[in-house]
Amino acid sequence: MAESIGPRREFLGWDRPALVSAADRLTERFGRDFSEVTLVVPTRRAGRRLETLLLLREPVLARPRTVTPGGLADLLVQTAGPARVGGKVADELTAGLAWVSVLRDVAPEALARVLPEVPDEPDFGGWWALARRVQQLREQLAAGRKTLEDAVEGAGAQDPRWAVLASLEGAYHATLAERRQVDLHAAREAALRGGTRLDGSVILTAVADLTPLHRAVVRCAGDAVSMVFAPAEKSEAFADDGCLVDTAWEHQGLPISEDTLGVVERRGDQPCAVVTALQDLAAGRRETEVSVGVGEEGLGPAVVRAIEGAGGGARSAVGQTLLETGPCTLLAALARYAESRRFDALAALLRHPDVELFLESELAGEDGRGREDWLTLLDRFLSESLRRQTTPDWLNDERVPSAMREVFAAVESLLPPPDERRPLPAWSGPWLAVLERAYVVRSFDETIAGEAASWRALQRVASCLDEQALLAASRDDVPTVTAAQAIRLTLSRLAGEAVPDPSTRGGVEVMGLLDLALDDAPVSVVTSLNEGHVPAAIGRDAGGLLPGSLRVKLGLPEARRRLARDTYLLNAVVASRESVKLLAARRDDEGNPLQPSRVLLLSDDAVYTARRLKWFFEDGPSGVAGDTATEAASAFGIPRPKPTDFGQAPDKPSVSLPVTAFRDYLACPYRFYLKHILRLLRPSDDAVEMDALVFGTLVHAALADFATSADAPRDSTDANRVAGFFSDALLSQARRRFGESPRAAVRVQLAFAEERLRVFAPLQAHWTRQGWEVRQAEHQLKTFVRRARGTALITGQLDRVDHHPELGWRIIDFKTGDTHKTPKDTHFKRADGVQTWADLQLPLYRDLFQGSAQFADVSADVSLGHVVLPRKPSEVGWHALDLPDSEWEQALAERDRVIDGVLSQDFRPSFDLPTWDDGLTEVCADGWPGRAANIRLGGFGGD
């Protein structure tokens, strides 16, 4: 039966939102009965919104069937039935396994000429990924109603790889035919060739971009209408079925004024710029009257966080992908650890929130013992040992605390047998048991975005595992795999699936450009208007088999088509909004230059294009304004410190402060609160080499051995002998910490440490000749300071104390940082020409030392300073901190001020950002444009 001519066109105009106009037209035509109506919409969100708008007009007797173009193609296959399309349509699991079987039968050398990577025979995950690539390639061809054979003809002799792939397609169809099944793409073509008709009315609603396959499916409808979202005067820009005519949009400029455009310096500045634009455009409007379009898909979550950080509500129209949910990331983390047995994989697993809840339930004993600080224990062990894998003997290490042994046993109990290989169906039961055990204590509230997605993910994973369990283990194409390979296959089947944020969440909706064009909010901000995002680059296929020239020859979607589509969408957004802001970035996050979207430059007028280029490269602001928060619109984005009980218990100080904590308070009281009150620490579970702390600790340990070991040459004036002892002590400490075979990176670092100590040895020998004697090393001291609000216990550890019979006492603080800094460099800072204290370490050491009963004969003239052991050998040396008495007194006054601030809970954030990375950037909103205003509005006071 011949295909019908196609749908009739009706133009909706674009001075109103598309779906609002469409709902009015549909209600006029069908009234309350949509039982014989199929609505075709570009996206699922558009379908949900259109049905809602229909229900808001008047209650319907029968709802319409709402599908995307792909759903309409599947409906055609269902209408045709198995007899007319050649059998039951194979699901994606069956089709994927058939391709794995076919690919494995090909000689590796032949396959290597076609595809970029050929997996090893046991690597089922690699074969499955390869099969998915071939399936995606066939899907791209099928959208243009082409096969691998058509690609052979199109590519000709220029690319003989297609002939190899085409020969495999026959074997693939034969494999499915043995099971009386048929490929989905073949079934669609069979339904089309067989003259299958779609009953009832098919209404395309603002569907302007259809593939050749979908256009053919639409022509199978006896009664079809394409409602075009554009004015009738644009009729020449649309084909008879309502699809875009590419050439009509090649020079279509955007009718906007210059103040509609905005540019930021870097990609990462765009979320903050969105907030600024919303505050300018949407003042006094409800959040439901505002929407945000994101041209770059990965930027959506950052935009949502930025809006929420400014005190607004936001929700993602796309929602959370299933692979990002707790259950799926947990399964992926379990698979990674089961396969690698690496400590970084174990640490990542322990950091998973769902594992934390499982362990809290699993390890809470009858004695009421709660959660141990497992991550801190593991981080400390890893930073000390730098172990890579959980070898069978690692629990025998004396540094492993008992709590860590319990945690490890609980995690191991979650894993299926990691080294065993079973037929794929046999792994469904064990993995279902893992999920049941991990989530038996959880309940999910589907009105909360993350929990709704997690619950959906659990359902989908369980469904996929049930499907895999039904496979006959005796089938030729059913693989024998490990537990990790089995669950990775399951997870790969969920790629691309997402759960929209619940509508009850409310707030500004953040969505892609296609959804934005159909949104009915009167105010919109569009970001990421850079080349490569708008228009989006055509995805690369496996092996680069589909270059642009071949796409054109085969009639597949290519760059020209994508440009036309995005040009149309942006014109529709601008035309249907009361106000709009378009944003682009000059550079990516690494500082590389970006190009403005071609959509912004299209025009027959060269002056127009030049003016837009000048705007992008010269006229726009160089960055985002720094203070966008307002008292009415912004909530305090930086978490406020909670009141802390500093009440003084009998015989106990109110607060205990190491001397090193004073630097943190002087830099930023709020960061001090996070680090020393809440004890937030940067995780360090994937170290492959010594960090600065471990490196310094190791060097300090070798220097302490020199001061305390009975066989140390402390009285020697021979620099070589001293250097030899340092080398032996360092090696001994390294063996104790890292074992006999440390990592290569650690061995390199040990060589650097040995070099620094070797350069220090002549100075040590010189001091011995002068008469200096080593008296103490790593010496602990403490003192109590009583203030009106309570008592502070000040503690410190002196790296070394030396004595000279004539010159007295000297306190040495060893510094192993890479750069050379004198005590004055570290203890003072200058702002606006005024010198202030930045660190009180040495003054506090002096006070502790002079107040110690152990050193009762200490005079007031104690010398203090740093022995710096930096990267450059020429900079190794001793630097004293010489200050007048008045400045020592000022240091103690500053000490008292800090203590009073802590006891009075004055933890206001500093307006200045730290000069070092402390791992608290996100918590402290560093770089957020409204940070200063948020600090003022947070109840901290200050200017």
Task: Please characterize this protein's 3D structure.
The chain is built from 34 helices and 25 strands. The strands form 7 sheets. A 6-stranded parallel β-sheet has the order 8-17-16-9-15-10, sandwiched between helices. Strands 18, 19, 20, 21, 24 and 25 form a 6-stranded mixed β-sheet that branches. Strands 1-7-6-2-3 form a 5-stranded parallel β-sheet, with helices on both faces.
What composes the largest sheet? 6 strands, parallel
Mean pLDDT: 85
* Beta strand count: 25
Strands of the largest sheet, in order across it?
8-17-16-9-15-10
- Gyration radius over CA: 35 Å
Distance, first to last CA: 79 Å
**Overall 3D geometry?**
globular
Kindly report the oligomeric state of this protein. Answer: single chain
The structure class reads alpha/beta
Strand content: 5-15%
How many individual helices? 34
Secondary structure layout:
Blueprint: E1 8-11, H1 18-30, E2 37-40, H2 44-57, E3 65-67, H3 69-80, H4 82-85, E4 88-89, H5 92-104, H6 108-112, H7 124-143, H8 148-155, H9 161-177, E5 181-182, H10 184-193, E6 198-205, H11 212-218, E7 221-228, E8 261-266, H12 270-281, E9 290-294, H13 300-309, E10 314-316, E11 320-321, H14 326-340, H15 343-350, H16 353-363, H17 374-385, H18 402-414, E12 422-423, H19 428-439, H20 449-469, E13 480-481, H21 483-492, E14 498-499, E15 508-511, H22 513-518, E16 523-527, H23 548-554, H24 559-575, E17 579-587, H25 606-619, E18 655-658, H26 661-667, H27 669-677, H28 692-708, H29 719-738, H30 744-770, E19 773-787, E20 790-804, E21 808-815, H31 823-827, E22 828-831, E23 834-837, H32 841-850, E24 863-868, E25 877-880, H33 885-903, H34 931-940
Helix pairs in contact: 1-2, 3-10, 3-11, 5-7, 5-9, 8-9, 12-13, 14-15, 14-21, 16-18, 19-20, 26-27, 28-29, 29-30
